[in-house]
Design goal:
CATH class of the largest domain: Alpha Beta
Number of domains: 5
InterPro entries: MKT1_C, MKT1_H3TH, MKT1_N, PIN-like_dom_sf, XPG-I_dom, XPG/Rad2, XPG_DNA_repair_N
Largest sheet: 4 strands, parallel
Keywords: Translation regulation
GO molecular function, one term: nuclease activity
Protein name: XPG N-terminal domain-containing protein
Family: Belongs to the XPG/RAD2 endonuclease family.
Strand content: 5-15%
Distance between the termini: 47 Å
């Protein structure tokens, strides 16, 4: 979050400079991803994204366009992502209560009326505004459906309220997809341990980048003289800010500016402090500046002199603490150094040291020139004074340098930033190998479960959260805490749910023997360096084995230092395959007993191993494995209604007139939430369906837990020295491991599911006329812009559904699904085939 209202004020004062992009030619540009994405996806773009889920496809279009400009001017971009949050940021994000307070506030009538006041928004966090708008949009959509139930037959209703408005789109939700894009396009990126713009500051000071493209928060950094605020690619120029010019224009010194920034709210201190809370959010910086200049107000002193205690959350001491933490976060922010360690970087000390070194150099130069001048008395006196100054500068510079190297870090800095994890963990996070959710849970002691896009009111979703504790979370925490400090092995970690924040569930750190000790003899070792990992190839390896117990149970624990290197895992395929096998054993897809040398698939595992035989396309293996795990957890059957009941996007007329076909459509839309339509990048504006989104969020929750379990499993292997880590450089880590890891990318959006849904509804009401139904979909979803061949896309979707039928039939034969439900799915797919494939005439 940038410094509140400062950017607009800088433009009003004419303090934002413009320069042609050509000036950046042959430079390395460090880009703050959060800031960059917020410039691309503004409040008027992707307004319905929270109603359909998935990755914003328009972002690909903007990235592709910007990268072409960078390439044209030979600018090398380096994208830096945010990492963990500091104490202030965690509190503002509602982390410790899983946004329970924000959810409650967003759904109250009084909050809706208050939100119209500009001044009231100053005290609201970005997340609270986002949840409010999402709740308001769903309420409006529900009212729209109710008011049109008599007239709505087969023409889908368009939502009239955006689902995201005037709120910053956080890049963390799409971080894995962006990293995947950067790897595919050979773009340099890094995930910072904490704040991205602080990491950019370090990279700039060490000469790894030449300029910063970041938020107004960069004005709080002494070592950043100028930075780029925005890129105007159509005009081939960029907007930049000169810190010294801003301070001069504001008549402030650096400390006074930071004081104002911490009072109005910024990335490290997101709250607006008194007495500024009563003013409109768009004017808060201007008013704070005026108060400082006219009255000399120091906001830190103000908190002490105005002891207003209106409750714990609004007490003066609470505000002072937030102020303190903001200042300390800025001063002692850890960054990843070029030696791979995560340590505090004192940018101010470095800036002072550099300034003194420059002054020393200047003074030395003046001394030399003076010695060459006439030796009269005044000059000699001047030389003596310069000599003394030079010696003084040398002493001071040495002192500053020593203090920078031997920093006196406050003992309680972990309360301001966070507890420190091993450097190796931060390294894996910097690559994108680990998303960091589990790391944050370990350091904070809280594993938050925040509401999904639909609000999370369904009983089945909440049951899924409860079941995830034993199925996933206890295992994940044990895998990550077992190799590190004993403190973390004993530390209490609680699962906190947004719908019941006071009813915490304790996670189990300690399991004896540990999960890793139980699984470390499971090893997939092929030594095939040319193999690229995929679930399909993994299944092939297992199916080709005559005895998987003999082939994949190692007699020796390969982490032992006494083993020669060639007996360890030496390539990415084996590392990823070993981690997947261990993950599947934890999910009970395989039965494993080391003492009896037993490794055999359970019924669920047998279904998975038949994926290739069932003619399932390899590109669907990961998503259908997610479906298998969801079905195994048994919280909601494919044909079961969601409870409490949610209004269908189908019309009441359709539900009454075609009850059987409506059931078919329900099944089809659920299966199609795993199918991504092939489309050009676009900013979606079209129909929505909350019931389909709810089911998608069930599956995406399972996918997210599978991702965390896989990450924990592979990290436990890496930290235990089972893999030759030095055999890979940074690029190899990214391309052969991070890029190939399963479950990292978010599931598809609901567009294809909705297109088939509304196609079939029109098809039923219009005498089985395919052309009219296709025309309706093309018009309502504007497919002429994004999907050139709608008919072909529908046929591809039918092919995928046919593969799903093969899967459910196998599940039925293994008695993992009721025969009636499997038969119903088969009939639903046959119904779709008849509608789409029988008549080949297309628009």
């Amino acid at each position: 979050m940038p410094i509140k209202s400062l950017e607009l004020y800088l433009f009003e004062r004419g303090l934002v400079g413009t320069y042609p992009i050509e000036a950046l030619k042959n430079t390395t540009l460090g880009i703050d991803v959060n800031h960059y994405v917020s410039r691309l996806l503004t409040s008027k773009k992707e307004q319905f994204l929270d109603a359909i889920g998935g990755f914003p496809t328009s972002l690909n279009l903007y990235l592709e366009s910007d990268l072409k400009i960078f390439k044209e001017y030979k600018v090398t971009p380096v994208f830096i992502f945010d990492g963990s949050l500091t104490a202030n940021q965690l509190d503002a994000a509602g982390y410790f209560t899983a946004t329970a307070n924000e959810v409650a506030a967003s759904s109250t009538t009084s909050d809706l009326s208050r939100n119209s006041s500009a001044s009231s928004q100053a005290s609201k966090t970005n997340k609270e505004l986002m949840l409010f708008q999402r709740h308001k949009a769903w309420t409006q959509w529900s009212n729209l459906m109710t008011s049109n139930q008599n007239s709505y037959i087969d023409q889908p209703l368009q939502p009239q309220e955006p689902f995201r408005y005037n709120t910053i789109m956080e890049s963390k939700r799409y971080q894995a997809n962006l990293i995947d894009y950067f790897i595919e396009h050979d773009i340099t990126y890094q995930v910072a341990p904490f704040t991205s713009w602080s990491q950019l500051s370090y990279l700039l000071s060490k000469g790894y980048i030449d300029a910063i493209y970041g938020p107004t928060d960069c004005l709080m950094l002494k070592n950043v003289d100028k930075f780029i605020l925005g890129m105007e690619f159509p005009n081939k120029d960029f907007r930049f800010i000169d810190r010294s010019r801003v301070l001069k224009e504001f008549h402030l010194n650096h400390e006074e500016f930071i004081d104002i920034a911490m009072a109005v709210g910024n990335d490290l201190q997101p709250y607006t402090l008194p007495p500024l809370q009563i003013y409109p959010n768009s004017k808060v910086f201007e008013i704070a500046l005026e108060m400082v200049l006219n009255t000399g107000t120091n906001f830190y002193a103000y908190q002490f002199s105005n002891q207003l205690d209106n409750g714990a959350d609004n007490s003066s001491s609470n505000y002072v603490e937030k102020y303190h933490k903001g200042i300390a976060s800025l001063r002692y922010m850890p960054v990843m150094h070029d030696n791979g360690r995560v340590e505090v970087y004192l940018a101010e000390a470095d800036s002072i040291e550099q300034s003194l070194e420059s002054r020393k150099s200047s003074l030395s130069s003046n001394s030399v020139s003076s010695s060459r001048s006439n030796s009269d008395s005044p000059i000699e006196k001047k030389m003596e004074s310069l000599s003394v100054a030079s010696e003084s500068t040398t002493t001071t510079s040495a002192t500053i340098g020593d203090s920078a190297k031997n920093m006196a870090i406050p003992n309680d800095i972990h309360d301001v930033i966070t507890q420190k994890l091993p450097a190796e963990y931060y390294f894996y996070r910097s690559l994108g190998l680990a998303t960091g959710n589990l790391f944050d849970a370990i350091t904070t002691g809280v594993y938050p479960e925040e509401p999904p896009l639909d609000g999370g009111s369904s009983n089945s979703y909440r049951e899924l959260i409860s079941k995830s504790v034993e199925a996933f979370k206890n295992k994940e925490i044990n895998l990550l805490t077992q190799p590190i400090n004993r403190y973390f092995q004993m530390k209490q970690i609680n699962l906190v749910k947004w719908f019941s924040p006071n009813n915490k569930t304790g996670l189990t750190n300690r399991i004896s023997p540990s999960i890793f000790d139980r699984l470390n003899h499971l090893v997939v070792k092929t030594d095939l360096n040319e193999n690229e990992f995929s679930i399909s190839e993994f299944i092939t390896i297992l199916n080709n084995s005559k005895d998987i117990s003999k082939d994949f149970i190692s007699e020796d624990a390969i982490f032992s230092n006494s083993l020669p290197l060639e007996k360890k895992l030496t390539n990415s395929f084996d590392l990823l395959s070993t981690s997947l096998l261990r993950s599947l054993v934890q999910l009970e897809f395989f039965e494993y007993n080391f003492s009896q040398r037993i490794l055999k698939p359970t019924k669920w595992g047998e279904v998975l191993l038949k994926f290739n035989d069932l003619s399932i396309d390899s590109k669907f293996h990961e998503r259908l494995l997610v479906l298998l795990v969801f079905l195994k957890l048994d919280t909601l059957k494919l044909s079961e209604e969601i409870k409490p009941v949610v209004r269908s996007a189908l019309s009441d007329h359709t539900l009454r007139s075609y009850p059987q076909e409506s059931t078919y459509i329900l099944l089809l839309t659920r299966l199609l939430t795993l199918y991504q339509v092939e489309q050009k990048p676009s900013n979606y504006h079209g129909p929505i369906d909350k019931k389909t989104l709810i089911f998608r969020e069930h599956l995406d929750y399972v996918r997210d837990n599978l991702k965390n379990l896989f990450e924990a499993t592979i990290i436990s292997s890496l930290t235990s020295n089972e893999f030759d880590r030095l055999s890979l450089d940074n690029n190899d880590w990214k391309t052969s491991i991070v890029h190939k890891m399963p479950f990292k990318l978010a599931l598809p959006n609901t567009i294809m599911a909705m297109m088939i849904q509304f196609f079939l509804q029109k098809y039923l009401h219009n005498g089985n006329a395919k052309n009219d139904a296709l025309t309706l979909v093309a018009t309502e979803f504007s497919t002429y812009k994004t999907i050139p061949d709608l008919g072909e896309q529908f046929e591809n979707a039918v092919e995928y559904l046919t593969q799903c039928v093969n899967l459910v039939k196998e599940l039925s034969s293994q008695r993992l699904m009721k025969n009636d439900e499997a038969a119903l799915i088969a009939k639903a797919v046959e119904f779709t085939k008849n509608a789409i494939l029988n008549d080949k005439k297309e628009i």
